[in-house]
Design brief:
By secondary structure, the protein is α+β, with helices and mostly antiparallel strands. The chain contains 2 helices and 5 strands. It has one domain: Beta-grasp domain (Ubiquitin-like (UB roll)). A hairpin with a 2-residue loop joins β3 and β4. It is globular, with a radius of gyration of 12 Å. InterPro entries: Beta-grasp_dom_sf, Mopterin_synth/thiamin_S_b, Sulfur_Carrier/Prot_Modifier.
């Protein structure tokens, strides 16, 4: 049983081959960063496309928690609630 919220993560078409072909994945975590850690643990090939070498979000993507960009919130430290949706959106070349 998880104590952390379980969230749906929408995977863009360009990254689906690194996520087992899935367009949506559920993950558990208290922050966006923890969700990405869970996603990358399950699908390690996606990490280099989503996370830059310094540990921040790769520059070719925007991430939205519901309707809000995490860049306008607390970035990867943004807390998540139960049943929220996290959307990864390419904003440039992947």
């Amino acid at each position: 049983m998880f104590d952390s919220p379980v969230v749906s993560i929408h995977i863009p078409p360009d990254l689906r081959s690194y996520a087992g072909g899935h367009d949506e994945i559920t993950a558990s975590g208290d922050t966006v960063g923890e969700l990405f850690d869970a996603l990358c643990h399950e699908y390690p090939a996606i990490r280099s496309h989503l996370i830059a070498s310094g540990g921040e979000l790769a520059p070719g993507f925007a991430v939205y928690l519901g309707p809000h960009s995490i860049r306008e919130l607390a970035g990867l430290s943004t807390p998540v609630e139960l049943e929220e949706v996290l959307s990864i959106v390419p904003v440039g070349a992947v």
